[in-house]
Every structure is written in structure tokens, then in C-alpha cells.
Amino acid sequence: MALHPVLQAVTDQIVARSRPYRNAYLARIEAARGNTVHRAALACTNLAHGFAAFPANDKLKLKQLHNPSVAIVSAYNDMLSAHQPFEHFPPIIKDAVREAGGVAQFAGGTPAMCDGVTQGQPGMELSLFSRDTIAMATAIALSHNMFDAAVYLGICDKIVPGLLIGALHFGHLPAVFVPGGPMTTGISNSEKARVRQLYAQGKVGREELLESESASYHAPGTCTFYGTANSNQMLMEVMGLHLPGAAFIPPNTPLRKALTAAAGKRAVEISAQGQSYIPVGRVVDEKSIINAVVALLATGGSTNHTLHWIAVAKAAGIVIDWNDFDKLSSVVPLLTRIYPNGEADVNYFQAAGGPPFVIRELLDAGLLHDDVTTVMGQGLRAHCVEPFLEDEALVWRPAPQTSGDLGVLRPAGEPFSADGGLRLVSGNLGRAIIKVSAVKPQHRVVEAPALVFDSQEALMDAYKAGKLDRDFVAVVRFQGPRANGMPELHALTPALTNLQDAGRHVALVTDGRMSGASGKVPAAIHVSPEVLAGGPLGRVRDGDMIRLDAEAGVLQALVPKVEWQARTVATADLSASHVGMGRELFATFRNAVSEAEQGAATFGLPLPLHMPEETDNCLAVPQSEAYSDEDFLFSRPMERKT
């Protein structure tokens, strides 16, 4: 099947836009590779420190320098249900690597916070920054230069992008990512949402709410809705960084154990001393990044990835922006209905055909690049299979030819929607992302007076006081990465949903985030530039008519141009968001972070030998068509051109 022309055009644009940075990146990882096993570069005292505590046979292998050393980098903790199973993975990997002739060393651990625990709490203001912290922790783990390949254990929201960003900064090392799998299905998602809305209305108490939540989040594994964590796994599958079909196999099962062991063996095979050397910096290229975006759109995945995969791409010297997401969304069909875009959870999606079915359908429709390198050393079509155990041996079989449930998973020729449901909206309020795959068509255009809030708490206070029983657009500002770390505002969903269900026309416009759990209320999020950077959202006043039109891509304050330009941007005292709960430690992050459309990142692109003029700031990116309108042109993060 020939590639879809839009997919080809976007690919060509990204390749051209990224060329100087991608070339610099590839040169850097080639230089890092060198010509020998890396620990050969260590002095004897360095090397002795590196294996002092190891068993004699492993120590002998490391001394001889002929056998690969595989790093294990883990985000294990036992508070995150998704990460609790990782406690048991290192011994499995070590035994498997030893059987394959190598040695596995636990190189280091990274932080792993749960957005489900911190949602609506001060700790959520550290969540986005935890991604780059995880990347830095990964770099520290690998900095000992003892390793020839690595396996990465992580699954949840900021953790997989953070691990991948860290891995890409050691792009000469082969990498295999190892997921933990979803928890078993609890109560239905519709029942969970119903109880949350009743609690927001004051019709049930905390005891009933906690009982409902405990019946939903009840066991080891990822939460079963299709939020950022499970979107992570879908994207890693389509980028070929997992073993095929590994994403949604439940934890603590024989098949999960077999896949974990096979991942360790595969890391040995793709090391420089193995059968074929496949560095992660070559696996992640322009085509695999585009494949990830397509998979996100085709499955109605998390809006968080309009930040994270821009940052991941940047780490590999690749420049993408929201125009790319928008162009691809216009031609990528929506193939799944998984909560919050439907009733089914990821376990049901897996049973209906899962990622292998989606990958095959998109390949057959010309909407994915097959000519990529994966950890299997083959094109992407090698990942159109699902794993099984036969007589305790791991085998793969072709994905089913037909969906197990057309209400959950459909072929590309019979999609739920002709487009991916993720749209770019822009106007005099800036640029923003809106996810419409769960928003009914009659709610996709809202024109109503603005009600301005400087925090989510202020909005909820107004709701509880009965002041929001009207048509309005909630403008929640000072929620960007520079202001307070860009927390998710998912806690607003039940209240806004109640108002919409009561017949009110409501929408949310914010420079904050809403996450992969974005629901049926229209929300223009990640508004860039953020208010603290002088963004025009700070010019909105209570009563201004706001038009949010997801169909036409419009985000506009209906205010006369002369009056609009004469207004000053609002200010606020944000000091309360900068101290307590460790937030004072992240002042450097808030000061250095790029805007949302540049990935909300604290690191820059690989520097080519000859930088273009006006890109002396390490966080700057070359201007693409996304910044052609002088109203939204930035030479550096958080600075407006005049």
C-alpha cells in the first residue's frame, strides 16, 4: 500500500526542518559509540568499583570485556499500582541475560509519581517536571559507562517519556522498554464517572466515593482507562521499542514473565557484541515519531503526548509541532472506542485485537511507515503479531483478521470517525489543542461569556456556591509550565460535565493540561504562549464573548481589535505555588522551561556545527509554519518578538 500523501508530505517537512539537528544528533551518538566495549575505556580502579559486589562468574565476564553488560533502569515503587510489579522484574532479566551470555546490572532507579494520587493537590505541580527529572536520573544511571545495552522499566504518565528522553541522550546504546501491563477490570468506567458526578453534586458522600474508586483502582497494574499511561504503551508498541504485543499483557502472569525474560535476551542480541547492533538513536527517527503520532490519533489517546512526544522528538534531534498533529489528524481515522472515548477498558481492547490489529490496519491503509527499524531488527509489520505461550515457550501469532467487537475496535475502512479527533485551534487567544473524540458534535462549538479564574480551586469554589448555573467559557489561567508546572485540571471534569448535562453551554480554555482523561466537555488546553509569558489569554476579562470552534479551528475573544490590543496582560501573585511540597526545588525548571508547543522541556535540541542566527538560546527551535503568524512568533521560549 502506497503511503497516504499527507503522511508523506508531513514526513518530508519534518525531515527537512530537522536536518541540521538530526545530523548533529547522529554524529554525537556515533562519536559516543567508539570502537570498543565501553567499559574498556575505564581505568582498572573504575572497573573494579563497577563489579566489586558481583558474583564471581559475572565478574569474570565483565573483566574479560567480551560479553555485553546490560543496564537495568527502573522506575519501580510500590505505591504506583502500575509499577509495583517491577519489583520482580530485575531478577528475571538478570537470569535471562546471563543465559544469553551477558551480565545485567541494576544501573539505577528513577522517580515515579502517580498523577492519580496528586490530582488536584499541590504535588501535581511537580508532575510535568518529573518527566525531565526522570530523564536526568536515567542519564545518571547510565553515566558510569559500564553498559552495552539497556532495558527500561516504566509505564505511567511522565515516566515512559522521561525514560525515553534519557535513553535518547545515550542513543548509542540499544534499548528495550519493558511494560508491566494493566490491572484486571474493575467496576465499569461509566459507573465510576456516575459516582464522581454525584459526589460533585453533593448527592453522595466521601465514603461512597472512596468505595467506588477502590472498586475501580483495585489491583497491581496500570489503571485500565485509556489515559496517558496506556497511551504510552500504544506509542511504544508502534515505535518498535517493545517486544511485539507486550503492552497490555497483565502483570503476574506466566506470559508477562516470559516477555520480560525475552526482553533481556533481546537486549543482549542487539548490543554491539550481539547478533545485530540496533542503537535506540537509530530506532527513534522521523518516521517512527510520525508513526507514534498516527497511533495516538487512531486510538484517541492522551493529549499529554502533544507535549511529551514533541520533547521526545527533540531529544533525538527531530522538530515537530502542533501543525503536524493537526495535519495528520485530518486523515487518520479513529479506530477505537476506549474509555473515556467509549465504555470499554484496555483489557477489552486487547481482547478485541489490541495494538497488533491497529498497527496492521494502519499499515494496510498507508498511514504508517513500515520501513523503520525496531528492536526486532525488522520493519513495523513484524509487530502485527500477538504473543502466546505454547508448552511454556514464547511464540507470536498473527493479529486476528477481524475485530472481536466492532463497538470497540474497527478496521481502517470502517472507522468510528474519519479523523483522529485531535485538533489545533488558534486565534487572538493563542494556539491550543482540543480533543474532540469524546465530545459530541453538538458541543464542539461554544460561544459564551468568559468567566476568568486564576486557579482551579477558584472555579470549584464558584461551582459549589451555585454561581455557575449559566452558559460560560471558563478561562483558567496561570496554569502553564512557567507559572506553576502546568498541573492537570482533570478535577474540574465532573463539575463541568454536570453543567453540560443540565443543558448549559460550557467550555474550558486554559494554559494548563487536562490529560488523557479529557472527557466530553470541550476543552482548549495548553494555550500557548502561557499567560505568565505575556500570552493573550491574560487579556480576557469577565464577560468577554469567547468563541471556541473545534470544527473550524477557532479560539477567539470577540473583542474589537483596538480595544484588545490596548489591554494589558493580567498579573498574579504565584508565590503560593512556588513553595511547599518541594516546589521550591523546581524554580530552575520554571525559569528554564520552554512553551507547551516546544514540549514544555528544560533541555534543547542537539546543536549543529553552525547554528542559525537568533537561536543562541539552548531551548530555541527553528521556526516552522506553526509560527508564521507574527501575532504568535517567538524567538526564544517565553519571549515575544516585538
From TrEMBL:
Keyword Magnesium (UniProt): no
Catalytic activity reported: 6-phospho-D-gluconate = 2-dehydro-3-deoxy-6-phospho-D-gluconate + H2O
Stored Pfam families: ILV_EDD_C (PF24877), ILVD_EDD_N (PF00920)
Cofactor section: [4Fe-4S] cluster
GO BP, one annotated term: D-gluconate metabolic process
Residue ranges occupied by any Dihydroxy-acid/6-phosphogluconate dehydratase C-terminal domain in the UniProt entry: 408-600
Cofactor note: Binds 1 [4Fe-4S] cluster.
Ranges of residues in domain Dihydroxy-acid/6-phosphogluconate dehydratase N-terminal: 68-381
Domain of life: Bacteria
Residues the entry annotates as binding [4Fe-4S] cluster: 156, 223
Pathway(s) where this gene product acts: Carbohydrate metabolism; Entner-Doudoroff pathway
Family membership noted in the UniProt record: Belongs to the IlvD/Edd family.
Role noted for this protein: Catalyzes the dehydration of 6-phospho-D-gluconate to 2-dehydro-3-deoxy-6-phospho-D-gluconate.
Protein name: Phosphogluconate dehydratase
Protein source organism: Noviherbaspirillum autotrophicum
